[in-house]
Amino acid sequence: MPEPRQAARLWGHEAAVQRFEESWQSGRLHHAWLISGPAGVGKATLAFHLARKLLGGSDLNSPAGRRISAGTHGDLLEIARKIDPRKGRLKGEITVAEVQPVQTFLHHTATEGGWRVVIVDGVESLNRFAANALLKILEEPPPKAVLFLTTSAPGALLPTLRSRCRPLMLSGLDEQAMRALIPDISADLLRRAHGSPGRALFLAQDRDGLCAGLVEQVMAGTAMDSEMWERVKQIAREGEGFALFCDLFSEALATQARDAAMEGNSLQAAEWAERVRQLAQLRQQTERFNLDKAEALREALALAP
């Protein structure tokens, strides 16, 4: 799949596009939009799709379209987690220093005389200082400026930040769109991806079923032994192993919570939901502070039945 900045077409999310266009055509376009939805469902792609509309770059072969694709358009600024050059991986958070250029950018005259657009991809990754800096910008937006904020965890944002944005909530794509985007997707991956192309590609990285197998073992109540511990350490060494395990384990725990709720056992459902919350917190802290992933996985396994 192409990068969001370079996508020639947006698959799905017609209702979100329509809502934005209605606001634009009314002459009262809101200055900030919060695009939320499952990871990998196309939030950043939608943000760039809407930015192209505002900046006259919907045709990728037009001068504006080519500049957006190349990341050189003077009226478009993207803020996202950056690669840590020392560790060769994404940083755990977006800092205030990375948000400060937004203020300068928005108070300069548009280079092409139209809109200025800012995309903050993964706004839940803003640390406290960065979130407060962005909030000040949202409180006093300059004219002819639009911000698109994307998040997979809207509940983790400051309530005051959410309240200053118009929501665009995205759901999963249908099967036709999924197969168009990933022609060779298997029936199993299609089922497990829940309409998220990014999730399908993410899950496909567990090629030998190492993470899925460990989740199955721990959910079955298998006690930790030396063989399982070696598997944990192997997963921790894989590039996306830790994230994959946490994702699959969280889904298994959430399924238990849903099943308990459907059976009318609210107490047990709450207990499972609390385990999901604890796992999410453990994953976030481990990735943000670059903690030992093998030890974090050992801690995660304690949340199993």
UniProtKB/TrEMBL annotation:
GO terms for molecular function: DNA-directed DNA polymerase activity. Its EC number is 2.7.7.7. Gene3D superfamilies: P-loop containing nucleotide triphosphate hydrolases (3.40.50.300). Keywords: Nucleotidyltransferase, Transferase. The keyword Iron-sulfur does not apply. It holds the Pfam family DNA_pol3_delta2. The keyword RNA-binding does not apply. It comes from the Bacteria. This is DNA polymerase III subunit delta. It comes from Bombella saccharophila.
